[in-house]
Each structure stands twice: as structure tokens, then as C-alpha cells.
Amino acid sequence: MTRPTPGVPNWVDLGTADLGDATRFYTGLFGWEADVSGEEYGGYTTFRLDGRAVAGAGPLFGEGQPTAWSTYIATDDADAVAARVEAAGGKVLVAPFDVMYQGRMAAFLDQAGAPFSVWQPGTMKGADVFDVPGSLAWNELVTRDVEGTAAFYGTVFGWVAREISVQGLPYIVWELAGETVAGMQVMDATWPQDLSPHWMIYFAVADCDESAAYAQSLGARVARPPSELPIGRYAVLEDPQGGLFALLQGANA
Predict the structure, then answer these.
(1) 64-76, pLDDT tens digit by residue?
(2) What is the DSSP string of the chain?
């Protein structure tokens, strides 16, 4: 793939309260190399796996902003996406702007309040590798408003929501032109009422239990211990600054 497909997640990055310690944690956990940019990019860090870009990280810019991972969805026109977001009932948090010659980005809230971003590639296309240990494996929206969310992302990206069953519970897969691009988990009454809608990031690992234990030794908290899914074994972790992310060991790993 020479350029990302519009409407498909193509990048994730971390906004963190302690970029130095986050770099220590994630390079230790996944074996990433940290490529720190110059002052013109605010010290933005690109994490690389064997020299290939897999994720990014930068400092927080808003007071009270929590440490969190962000999902970026590829587009060939960030301004057109911004217009569709507003028309569909979402909110533009950061209007489209150029990141030097690397690309153009914008940040939004969907109609239920879940934040997400888009990336219009320039010289930087997004991640170079997916679905291998240490790289992005899955993006999943967690929300309470299933019907409204299906309508929103259908309008903005042309996604189609298809319901399936995972261990007897409803689950939504997002499809674009017949291909699965992401998932959606329904927040029912068992979820904490104060938990906001959000996008969850899953990183592939060779051994979920071993990686979760190692993450703990590096300072992480295990929010959900390793558990079985039809597609493999997963765990949800909280990094030392409070950023949530998940590990996923494929069923064939």
C-alpha cells in the first residue's frame, strides 16, 4: 500500500502528561525506537519498530487534559470531513491544519462525545506496519449510542455497521466497501456511568499474559486481566500516566 485508504484507521498517537516516562514505558514494552522531532514539531516522538513507524506521542497542551491514545482515520480531504462531522451532529475540536509538509490533520468529537482525528497524508502516510507484534492491530469504539453512532460514521466515512455476536454479546463491526475496518462495543448498564465514549487501541503481541505481566513490571496497571476472545487473547492496561490501551494476541499466535 503506497497511500492509506480513505476511511481506514492509519495512525495512533498518545497525548501524555509525561512524554519522557511514556517513552521509557512503551519502548520497554514493545521494543520500539523513539525518533524525537525538532522544535518545529514540538518534540513530537515517532515510535518505530525495526525502523518502521508504528505510533506517535506528544505532550498535552490543554490544562486538565487526560493522558489518552487517539485514533486517526485516513482521508484525502480533511476539510470535507470537518464539514460532514458538523452536518452529522459532531463537533470540530481542532480545525484542519497543515503539519508542515507531512500532512494535514483535524480533531473531532462524534455525536456521542467520543474524540477521534483524521490524517490527510503528505510525506508522512501514517503507520508503516500493522498486525505484527508491537504494532496496531485493532481500533474499537466504545459507546452507548449505537444507532446515532452508526448514522454518524456512515455519514462521515461511509461506514456500514454490521452486528455480530461475540461470546453471546452484541458487537458491531464497521465495514467500508465490504472490508472490515474497525469495531464498536456497546456500553451497557454494567459499564461505569462516568466513563465517556472513547476509541480503544489494540496493539498486537506474541504472548498476552507475558506482555501484561511485563507491562506491570514497567509501571502499568492491569484494568482487565488477560481473557479469551474468539479472535485471540486480550488484556486492557493503563500506562503509568493513566492512558488506556489493549494488548491482543491473535488466535494463531
Answers:
(1) 889 999 999 999 9
(2) --SPPTTSEEEEEEEES-HHHHHHHHHHHH-PEEEE--GGGTT-EEEEETTEEEEEEEE--STTPPPEEEEEEE-S-HHHHHHHHHHTT-EEEEEEEEETTTEEEEEEE-TTS-EEEEEEESS--S-S--SSTTSEEEEEEEES-HHHHHHHHHHHH--EEEEEEETTEEEEEEEETTEEEEEEEE--TTS-TTPPPEEEEEEE-S-HHHHHHHHHHTT-EEEEEEEEETTEEEEEEE-TTS-EEEEEEETT-
